[in-house]
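User: Sequence in, structure out. Go.
Assistant: Echoing your sequence, followed by the structure tokens.
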Amino acid sequence: MKVTSEMKTMFDKHGLIVVRSLFDDEENSKLRQAAEHKDGLTNHSFLQADANDGDSGLRSIEMVLWNHPGNDVTGMMARVHKMATSMEIFMGCKEMYHWHSKLIMKHARSGGSHVWHQDYGYWYTGGVLYPDMGTVLVAIDKCTPENGCLEVLPGSHKCGRVDHINVGGQMTVDPKRLQLLKDHIKTYQVPLNPGDAIFTHANLVHWAPQNNSDTRRWCYGIAYSDVQNSPYNDTFHPVYTPLIKVDDDAVRKCENFTDFTGKDFYKRDYDSF
């Protein structure tokens, strides 16, 4: 993928851009195989409670999170130029490194919500000084309003970091400030087809509702950080580690679905994300 000046202008204006079919059917099939493999990623999963679910315990998000890309299919996807180099161009950074990756699994009829937040609302507490960070969310399944697709406030990244509070183990934008933002900015849903990707700025305000449908919603998210953002304190996330990029055909060529050497899976509290 070549990032055009028009795409860069759109990202700067809205804090996001959707790229349709960034990964083709063959590539997305490999990602799905990596996600579903019985000896694969889900052996490292944990449950995050839904902050909007009260005390019922009926809703949750199953997730897998890791620090380093590794050499499996998911690692190749994080390292290809159409992901990593494109994010550097969108963010205006000379070099970015892998901050973390995560498999997000919202199961049918039980998948919980991620409340309104900025990614930097979490990462600010993780020892990074600048919001020169971004995430690419790749759809494994079809993401629809019914199964809890992403909803965004375009342009909200220009407001800078806003205060967050802890609600049910998740960090959410201060409710009064959120309402003011929603009064000024129209909320947009972002449906995705398998293989589509959305690039987002770390200060973009967004959320993902519960999955109340009969179809699951699985996505793969990769976060990148500028080299100057190596954490200044002790945190789960890694200090600057050079990202070794690979050619865009690396996902097709990769047959590694279960060797996760060096990925460093997450095992601590959600607050460190």
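User: And one key feature?
Assistant: Helices lie at 5-14, 25-36, 73-79, 81-91, 119-123, 175-184, 250-253.
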